[in-house]
Amino acid sequence: MTPPSTPAPRPRRPLPARPRWPRPRAPRPEDFRAPGHAPQVAARLGLWLGVAVAVCFGTGLASHLAQHPPAGFGWPTRPVQLYRVTQGLHVLSGVAAVPLLLAKLWAVYPRLFARPPRWRGRGRGGAGAGPASRLGPLLGHAAERASILALLAAVFFELVTGLFNVAQSYPWRFFFPAAHYAVAWLAVGALLAHVGVKLPVTRAALRTGYGAPAFVAERRAVLRTAVGAAGAAVLATAGVTVPGLRWLSPLAWRGADPPAGVPVNRTAAAAGVAVPPDWRLTVTHPGGSRSFSLAELAALPQRSERLPIACVEGWSATATWTGVPVRALLAAAGAPAGRPVRVRSLEGDGLYASSVLPAAHARDPRTLLALGLAGAPLTPDHGYPCRIIAPSRPGVLQTKWVTRLEVLP
Fold first, then answer.
1. I need a labelling partner for 125 at 20 to 30 A (CA). Which of 146, 267, 367, 394 fits?
2. Which of 319, 329, 292 lies closest to 389, judged by CA?
3. Where is the Oxidoreductase molybdopterin-binding domain (predicted)?
4. Which residues have CB under 8 Å from 57's CB, separation 6+?
5. Angle at CA of residue 395, ends 393 and 397, nearest 5°
């Protein structure tokens, strides 16, 4: 029997040659030719962003001085809208800075791919050059990168934490006011360093207009878009502090609470406040003390004032408050005039359970120990049985649920 024949092996087809992809390389500044990346655009965006940051820093510093005045400094009581204006500008300038910062980053990010200058030693164009002349470009490049890194980190920290503060959300463990204040100085220092490094380039870009005529329209369009976005962001939020813009502000984080028209940040339940049935207000001073029941306070001469209450989160509202002028109350208790007054609340362990009313505010006739709001007695959430309302004063220092006034030496 004949065995079956073995089939011959098929010839193998040659494998197709692998395509040779170009080696990846880091982008170069010349790869970005869009009109929005021009130095003329970046310079103008940087100028507007610098104005927004300067306003935000200046008004933030004013807020810090109003809340934590150093020795010898007194926050003024007039005009009564002063703190409302400064804190409103602080928050709104921070809101405007967000789109301006993003537009500025988009305009300049190709420069971040620029490699540092090479060391120009002997035999490579630097023969006879001293160490200082060879190190100069490297040090300048390093200073620019360091200023950019510090500036971006600080500004992003300020804007992001500020927006969280506006929303009353604190997903961190550090104390927001102290950290926000400290990093603000870091941001300003980094900004000044960056301006110093880039000043020659910025001045040259501003002097040359918009550059090539073919790109003038496109570059102006980029700037209009950035400014329009900043304006839209401001209008969408400005109603929290500008009553006339309330209808234009769908993103306002605080609205009016009818009928009083004053929002509430911290309720009595959240503060753990329970007013005892035998509540009395105690006024102490170096010469003695006196206590008042709520009925006795209501029997004293009353005064109504239309005053704003402005929160550090940027919202503010004006309302009519009725109560006893603090200086008249101190006089009725036999306390000396012209001295600061410590105000203590029924809220035992809160960060703002007590505040110090400066002497200028204590003797101002418009500073009230308020018993009523908008023609009605105070509600527990608005500070019943009484609260402090003073002109041109941060809302966190308008202490609610007052139980004791201490005239300081």
1. 146
2. 319
3. 276-408
4. 184, 187, 188
5. 70
Q: Which residues lie below 8 Å from residue 141, measured CB to CB, with a gap of 6+?
A: 116, 117
268-407 CATH fold: Sulfite Oxidase; Chain A, domain 2 (3.90.420)
- Burial letters for 168-193: b for 16+ Cβ neighbours within 10 Å, e otherwise? eeeeeeeeebeebbebbebbbebbeb
- Tokens at 45, concatenated: 């965006």
Supply the CATH classification number for the domain 29-118+135-248. 1.20.950
Instruction: Identify whether the C-beta of residue 241 lies closer than 8 Å to the C-beta of residue 88.
Output: yes
Specify which residues 368 forms β-bridges with.
Answer: 325, 389
What is the layout of strands, in order, in the sheet containing 341-345?
288-292, 281-285, 402-407, 341-345, 354-357
* Phi/psi of residue 203, nearest 5 degrees: -65, -40
Count of helix runs (H) and strand runs (E) in the chain: 9, 10
Contact 348, 380 (CB under 8 A): no
